[in-house]
Design goal:
With about 250 residues, the chain is mainly α. It has three domains: about 5-70, Multidrug-efflux Transporter Regulator, Chain: A, Domain 2 (Orthogonal Bundle); about 75-120; about 125-250, no CATH class. The chain has 14 helices and three strands. The chain has helices at about 5-10, 15-25, 45-55, 60-70, 75-110, 115-120, 125-135, 135-145, 150-175, 180-195, 200-205, 205-225, 225-230, 235-250; strands spanning about 5, 30-35, 40. The chain has a three-stranded antiparallel sheet with strand order 1-3-2. The relative contact order is 0.07. It comes from Streptosporangium pseudovulgare.
Length: about 250
């Protein structure tokens, strides 16, 4: 079975122009081109498009997606990863639905919603990463600290975080050197921000593990597309990584 480019675009909820662009950048070529010049796509092309659309939804850029697909040597492995990511997204959404229902039920009954339940599913996106890198205790302490805050306190923390990110982005756009005093003052501010989170090596004053953690976070900012978007682009995330790495190695 094959679909024309118009049929595939309609079923995928995208445009024919998008599919042509994917072909031009080497992301998704048609399975064949007919004598009439029409593009046709078979099941393997559709499976590849599934992966592309999922990664786009996760915020990945086309070059990053191309890198992931280039590293996959087996289509079945790619589909397994696709399913795992969808299942993780499903679990997160289900938790958010339960949290929203709890809030609605409490408000309708005149009761006060539980803060920890209200935000469950919205703030634990990095549990697996934290546990794998720093242990269960680090995650549990930081998670308990977060859910123990009032809503106003959580909003204030998020505003502080957004202000810090905005300062990093402004410095990167200004062409500041990662080793400059300005960049290093931002790195110091970043480390102070980390030290306010219980369970982290910076909060516990563990110098060696703090250096490791700051460098590790810097690498994650540069390598993970989620953070590249947060710091405006890949260049911004790389700037943050380089500044944090310099600070960790010379000033912690």
């Amino acid at each position: 079975m094959e679909w024309t480019i118009q049929e595939l675009a309609a079923r995928a909820g995208i445009t024919s122009r998008t599919l042509r662009h994917y072909d031009r950048v080497g992301l998704l070529a048609p399975s064949r081109i007919g004598v009439n010049g029409y593009r046709y796509y078979d099941f393997s092309a559709v499976a590849r498009l599934q992966r592309i659309l999922l990664m786009r939804r996760l915020g990945m850029g086309l070059s990053a997606i191309a890198g992931v697909l280039a590293d996959e040597v087996d289509t079945c492995d790619g589909l397994r990863a696709h399913i795992a990511a969808l299942e993780e997204e499903r679990d997160r959404i289900e938790q958010q639905i339960r949290s929203a229902r709890h809030t609605l039920d409490a408000l309708q009954s005149g009761a006060e919603p539980r803060m920890d339940v209200m935000l469950a599913g919205f703030n634990d996106d990095y549990e697996e990463e934290v546990v794998s890198r720093w242990g269960e205790r680090a995650f549990q302490e930081s998670n308990d600290w977060w859910h123990g805050k009032t809503l106003d306190q959580q909003r204030a923390w998020k505003q502080d975080t957004e202000d810090l990110v905005a300062a990093w982005v402004a410095a990167a756009k200004a062409g500041v050197s990662p080793t400059s005093e300005h960049a290093q003052s931002l790195a110091a501010r970043h480390v102070r921000w980390l030290s306010r989170i219980p369970g982290t090596p910076t909060a516990e004053g563990d110098r060696e593990r703090s250096i490791e953690m700051v460098e590790c976070l810097g690498d994650m900012y540069a390598d993970d597309p989620r953070f590249a978007g947060m710091y405006d682009d890949a260049a911004g995330a790389t700037f943050v990584r380089d500044a944090l790495r310099t600070y960790a190695r010379t000033r912690i």
